[in-house]
Amino acid sequence: MWYKTKATEILGIDYPIMQGPFGGSLSSVELVATVSNAGGMGGYGAYTLTPQEIIEVNSRIKTATGKPYNLNLWVSDSDVQDGTVTDEQFEKAVKTFKPYFDQAGVALPLKPAPFKSRFENQLQVILDIRPKVFSFVFGIPSADVLEQCLRLGIKTIGAATTLNEALALEAAGVDMIIASGFEAGGHRPSFLAPAEQSTTGTFVLLQLIKEKVKTPVIAAGGIANGRGIAAALTLGADAVQVGTAFLACDESGALPVHRRMLFSDAAKYTTLSRAFTGRLGRGITSRLAKDIEGKEKQFLPFPLQTTFMSSLRKAALDQQKWDMIHFWSGQIAPILKHTKASVLMQSLVDETSKIIKS
Ligand SMILES: Cc1cc2nc3c(=O)[nH]c(=O)nc-3n(C[C@H](O)[C@H](O)[C@H](O)COP(=O)(O)O)c2cc1C
């Protein structure tokens, strides 16, 4: 049967369909449990959570499902040298974004507090709570950590945006590799070359990786129905990871307006921008993203740009100034149909079964 793959065997799930984890409060326990209970694999993006919050989320997921699920972290969670920026850097950002703060009638923010990486502390929790699957983006954990995961029976999944990143992940010995195509919603998790130079589409990336790498591959980016799954499996994927289509479901942590936007005409156009967080990420095209393109040198490094933009985002949401908000979305949004995660899962399975008969 099409749904028995190396991935289903490794992960202990019924269907080779993963719900993409979403960082920044967009994941939800309900979504993870719904997908895992339906035989796929739910995923929780935990990179903004404190260790204690990860422990709590994990126990809530465990209560909601007895099936395997995936906890996800960012190996590199900061681009800030020494935790902060100079006054000069900060003034450049203020000057660049002042017109938007003025338009929203919001006071210009103060220089963000220094940022300290959270990854090491979060990682310790993962090793303590031992989820069935630990996936990560923006790099590769140390050999020692991967060895501990192996010993503890935690399956590891790393994400590649280029063939070189996939080769590095294979050399490190991860259990599976995500081929993350540039169609995908959210951040581009590149770690060897700048994200702007790592923009291969899912189906090319998948084929490049399959040609050179033996580790099972999960295709992610632009897959939202049975045809997409069948195409990915035909090209050699062992599983798919679906993000935007699950983000649009009622169970996700996305705001109602965000979910509405994903089903609106606006979702026909998406842009990769650094303006909202400091790292390159795909969202529905906004006036702000278009206006500010080319001024990336004036932005603050990740994640200070997120902090810097937070009061503007809040005001824009309150005032319904959607043209200043980056509603995360992949390019595939215009084909979305479902608002219930269980219905989406069932239709992904049924549609794929109709296309691949055995
Ligand atoms: C809002 C949003 C947040 C995301 N956050 C993460 C994350 O924290 N970690 C991660 O591994 N992938 C993250 N992703 C990527 C998804 O897990 C998935 O790989 C991707 O959305 C698949 O492409 P698609 O959106 O075209 O379906 C995010 C995607 C979106 C849309």
Structure in words:
Helices cover 40% and strands 13% of the residues. It has 358 residues and is an alpha/beta fold. The strands form 2 sheets. Strands 1-9-8-6-5-4-3-2 form an 8-stranded parallel sheet. The chain has a 3-stranded antiparallel sheet with strand order 7-11-10, with no helix packed on it. It is globular. The mean pLDDT is 97. The protein binds flavin mononucleotide. Residues 20-23, 26, 45, 47, 72, 135, 137, 159, 180, 183-186, 220-223, 241-244, 247, 328, 330, 332 line the site of flavin mononucleotide (FMN).
Question: Which strand order do you get reading across the main beta sheet?
Answer: 1-9-8-6-5-4-3-2
Rg estimate, integer Å: 20 Å
Structural class: alpha/beta
Beta strands, count: 11
Quickly count the helices.
14
User: Which distinct ligands sit in these coordinates?
Assistant: flavin mononucleotide
Largest sheet: 8 strands, parallel
The oligomeric state of the chains shown is: single chain
Q: List low-pLDDT spans.
A: none
Order of helices and strands: HEHEHEHHEHEHEEHEHEHHEEHHH
| C-alpha geometry | globular
Please give the alpha-carbon distance between the first and last residues.
5 Å
Q: Let me know the average pLDDT.
A: 97
Helicity level, as a percent range?
Answer: 40-55%
Q: What fraction of residues sit in β-strands?
A: 5-15%
